[in-house]
Amino acid sequence: QRVVLMDPSEDPDDILRANRPREKTFVFDVVFDHTATQEEVYVSTTKSLIEGVISGYNATIFAYGPTGTGKTYTMLGTDSEPGIYIRALDDLFKGLGAIAEEVDCTVSMSYLEIYNEVIRDLLNPSSGFLDLREDSRGSIQIAGITEVSTTNAQEITQLLMKGNKQRTQEPTAANGASSRSHAVLQVTVTQRSRRKETGEEVRRIGKLFMVDLAGSERAAQTQNRGKRMKEGAHINRSLLALGNCINALSEKGGSRAQFVNFRDSKLTRLLKDSLGGNSRTVMIAHISPASSSFEESRMTLIYAYRAKNIKTQVPEQI
């Protein structure tokens, strides 16, 4: 459960810094080393949330970290080692299959990317840029997004692989296939059942958000220029907005309770309910063991450590 980070740039013989600790320790719910399998990561982070989605709660999984640390691998994986997307949907369909006789279930899925603060549908890229709208109940909707209804995990795997090929990826000095956008997979589970006593219809909706964030960037490390530089600025802007929301939420109820500004970016508006509302949320923070990435690793661990302090009240289902 413990990550120890040692500053490689500090000279142990430097007298001025002799009494300053070189090590920084962070404690998390669970920590994985380089030998961890996709199955281990999924079971420890996400598996327990699927039951909640079937019960009508919302759940969100973030993959966060610097560019090139393996976020897309954790979320999407490969054919032989599928990631969290595929494993979560597999378990979701198995869980819904077990209650299919008592309850009428429908599962719909959308897959989008937020690139340079505009929203693109990855299942139908030709639809152009889409708008975020708020309905009368205050929930955020995306106008014109493609929603696919299926209970076949194989079909969804193919759709995700196809959608991921439409994602904006460009080479940078830090990563040859750097994701330049945030990818959001939204799965909505709607259940309808009838109460035996009254015969009235009961409707339950659970939402599962799985978010593969773009890598946090330092231009000095990625050596970005021109268009890449502009993309990096947009990526960092939305991650900063997300960080500000996390900071404000983690201090809520404390002496420095702050206003939570979800309107700073499209990403935070879309994930408003996932961060501060009726949702169980997991952040999987990725870091690189390379000493050249020390600063990125430090900032990532501080960011994730703050996210750990968020306490949300999940209302009980009636």
Automatic annotation (TrEMBL):
Q: Where is the protein localized?
A: Cell projection, Cilium; Cytoplasm, Cytoskeleton
What is this protein called in UniProt? Kinesin-like protein
Kindly list the positions annotated as binding ATP: 65-72
The record lists the organism as Onychorhynchus coronatus
Q: What does this protein do?
A: Plus end-directed microtubule-dependent motor protein that regulates the length of motile cilia by mediating depolymerization of microtubules at ciliary tips.
Q: Which family does it belong to?
A: Belongs to the TRAFAC class myosin-kinesin ATPase superfamily. Kinesin family.
InterPro entries in alphabetical order: Kinesin-like_fam (IPR027640), Kinesin_motor_CS (IPR019821), Kinesin_motor_dom (IPR001752), Kinesin_motor_dom_sf (IPR036961), P-loop_NTPase (IPR027417)
A single GO molecular-function term is: microtubule motor activity
Q: Provide a GO biological process annotation.
A: microtubule-based movement
Protein keywords: ATP-binding, Cell projection, Cilium, Coiled coil, Cytoplasm, Cytoskeleton, Microtubule, Motor protein, Nucleotide-binding
Cell membrane as a keyword?
no
